[in-house]
UniProtKB/TrEMBL annotation, chain A:
The keyword Cell division does not apply. Keywords: Hydrolase, Protease, Thiol protease, Ubl conjugation pathway. This is ubiquitinyl hydrolase 1. Its EC number is 3.4.19.12. SUPFAM superfamilies: Cysteine proteinases. One of its GO terms (molecular function) is ubiquitin binding.
Automatic annotation (TrEMBL), chain B:
Its EC number is 2.3.2.23. The active site is at 110 (glycyl thioester intermediate). Pfam families: UQ_con (PF00179). Residues 25-171 form the UBC core domain. Belongs to the ubiquitin-conjugating enzyme family. Gene3D superfamilies: Ubiquitin Conjugating Enzyme. Signal peptide: none annotated. One of its GO terms (molecular function) is ATP binding. It comes from Penicillium olsonii. Residues 1-23 are annotated as: Disordered. Keywords: ATP-binding, Nucleotide-binding, Transferase, Ubl conjugation pathway. This is Ubiquitin-conjugating enzyme E2 2.
Length: 421, 171
């Protein structure tokens, strides 16, 4: 049984030492770790062949928490280039011009301005950071992790999406099970809703498309082969960058591919999902992780020579241009030395590894309670009692600390044993 | 009232400040709402922060809409705002005893927009207006007896409303 490293894309990966789950853990633990397979009940799993299971797991390993509003920002920023200040400026103006949508549907500006302000503030800080050559992007990590600003940006995009639908009802109404107003007030506006297919279309048409980013849905259907089925939702993307979302019914996760997207090796998910108001169900301690090391997971920032990275520029001691070891900068590593025993790397596009390959012996992992997160930690499906164990049990997918990992001592054989029930 | 307005741009401080940030943002939002309520009051509703000054607790009043059993009645409510308001709904309770299908005898309200259908664009004013219209259009039998009576005997329903109603003294 092989669990692939999510970010390994074969030998061409330009940043081998970024394939570090500790880093990944840092970032995503404070976000929305999403381990898949949870949606397959044990019963459903019986119907799947081991190969299928494996395929799903490999695909699932690439899951990222849902991200909506500002992956564009992340991409731009990861490319950190002074000319992006101008681009970001343009985007900022564009976003601001979308206020007219909100005005047209009769939303009072005193109601929406705090949300718009949050988005503008982030864009402005990006511009400032680029212009002043400051390489400290901790504000981004903070903005997308700190509930309030993240929620505000998401709300802003919710409002824009809803307004777009209301202003273009003919385009969406035939696909809606209810009147447009009701759809918006029950499926788009509420804080605790995930975006659905129609809503996503509207978000793309009304908000994202104008930014020049392409959008592609990768759909985990059950078609033949071991490749996920892509659906291109935008006809053109002048920027050359594509936002990829992994779809399973009821949920989209952002997905980063190392290939093609300019010189970006996207790794970091910087944002909350559209449904982000679950802070109460997430242990606050997840936000207490060392943000500095999480920044290390932002690809390119440290490698890009244009960055002229100087240690003195950074308030983050862990952000050194040449980390001594792949795992050297992770606080978790010190806390859990056994985690250095990482599973073998398997590329997502590689042939099926032999399902029968014996898993390595259990390491001395601490035991986790069996009610710990099994797989997918979308807050919508997560039990409240899971939250306390989040910081240590769920932070990244391929950690043996994740119960979905075969090296975890609480790993559930039923999910994996080919000849199990 | 004391509002912290410190610089949150400093990344080193950011983490520390994050928590307070939330409170600050809530406060800012609630101040804006209060301003709006005072500048353009809606007939039949009012709301104001409680005296303790943290802005997270308000008392509101609505008047019963005409042509409903609540016509002419004044109903007081309490609002408690969570730290992540407006991304979580306020906790709203009827303080005035009220006989209504959507309200239990502790004053708790069953209304979807105060729960899973809450949106961050709702505010004190829109909640109060929703509650006001809820008075004339009950939809969820939290109080089953009231719901039944509403459907079967409006006269009797109104008698129950008036019997239960008690004007609260101003504190």
């Amino acid at each position: 049984m092989s669990l692939s490293k999510p970010w390994n894309h074969g030998s061409h990966h330009p940043f081998p030492h970024k394939q570090n789950f500790d880093l990944y853990r840092d970032v995503s633990s404070s976000l929305r770790p999403a381990f898949s397979l949870s949606t397959f009940s044990p019963f459903a799993m019986n119907a799947l062949s081991p190969d299928e299971m494996e395929r799903f797991q490999r695909l699932s390993n690439t899951y990222q928490p849902d991200v909506q509003p500002s992956h564009s920002i992340a991409l731009d920023y990861a490319n950190a280039d002074p000319t992006l200040a101008a681009k970001t400026n343009t985007e900022s103006s564009r976003i601001k011009s979308l206020n007219t949508l909100l005005d047209q549907i009769g939303l009072a500006d005193h109601i929406y301005e705090i949300f718009v302000d949050a988005t503008e503030d982030i864009l402005k800080r990006i511009i400032d950071a680029i212009q002043s050559g400051v390489q400290d992007e901790s504000f981004l990590v903070e903005a997308f992790n700190e509930g309030y600003s993240s929620d505000a940006v998401i709300t802003h995009f919710r409002l824009l999406t809803g307004a777009w639908i209301k202003l273009n009802p003919g385009r969406y109404l035939p696909f809606l099970p209810m009147p447009v107003d009701q759809y918006c007030s029950t499926r788009i506006d509420p804080v605790k809703t995930e975006i659905d297919e129609v809503g996503l279309q509207a978000l793309i048409h009304g908000v994202i498309e104008g930014s020049g980013f392409g959008v592609e849905i990768l759909y985990l259907d059950r078609s033949e082969g071991d490749a996920v089925t892509p659906h291109q939702l935008t006809t053109n993307c002048p920027s050359g960058a594509t936002l990829r979302l992994l779809y399973r019914p009821g949920h989209y996760d952002i997905l980063y591919q190392a290939e093609s997207t300019l010189n970006v090796a996207p790794i970091v998910n910087l944002q909350y999902g559209l449904s982000s108001d679950y802070t109460n169900s997430w242990d606050n301690a997840t936000l207490g992780f060392d943000m500095n090391s999480s920044l290390m997971a932002i690809p390119n920032l440290m490698q890009d020579s244009s960055f002229g990275m100087g240690a003195s520029m950074s308030p983050m001691p862990s952000v050194s241009p040449a980390p001594p070891s792949p795992y050297g900068m992770s606080p978790q590593q010190e806390m859990y030395p056994p985690m250095q025993s990482h599973p073998p790397i398997a590329s997502i596009s590689s042939p099926h590894p032999p399902p029968s390959s014996a898993p390595p012996p259990m390491t001395s992992l601490p035991s986790r309670s069996s009610d710990g997160p099994q797989i997918r930690l979308n807050p919508l499906v997560m039990k409240p009692n899971l939250s306390r164990s989040l910081p240590v049990t769920t932070p990244f997918k391929n950690s043996p600390y994740n119960q979905a990992h075969f090296q975890n001592s609480d790993f559930e054989p039923i999910h994996w044993e080919p000849h199990g029930r | 009232m004391d509002y912290n307005m410190e610089d949150t741009q400093n990344p080193v401080e950011a983490q520390k400040v994050a928590q307070r940030n939330d409170t600050q943002s809530v406060t800012k939002r609630l101040q804006a709402e209060l301003m709006q309520l005072m500048l353009s009051p809606s007939p039949g509703i009012s709301a104001f922060p409680d005296a303790d000054g943290d802005l997270l607790a308000w008392t509101a009043t609505i008047t019963g809409p005409t042509e409903t059993p609540y016509e002419g009645l004044t109903l007081k409510l309490s609002f408690k705002f969570p730290n992540d308001y407006p991304y979580s709904p306020p906790t709203v309770l009827f303080k005035t005893p009220i006989y209504h299908p959507n309200v239990d005898f502790s004053g708790r309200i069953c209304l979807d927009i105060l729960k899973d259908k809450w949106s961050a664009v709702y505010n004190v004013s829109s909640v109060l207006l929703s509650l006001q219209s809820l008075l004339g259009e009950p939809n969820n039998p939290l109080n089953a007896q009231a719901a039944e009576l509403w459907d079967s005997n409006q006269e009797e329903f109104k008698r129950h409303v008036l019997a239960r109603h008690q004007d609260l003294d101003d504190e």
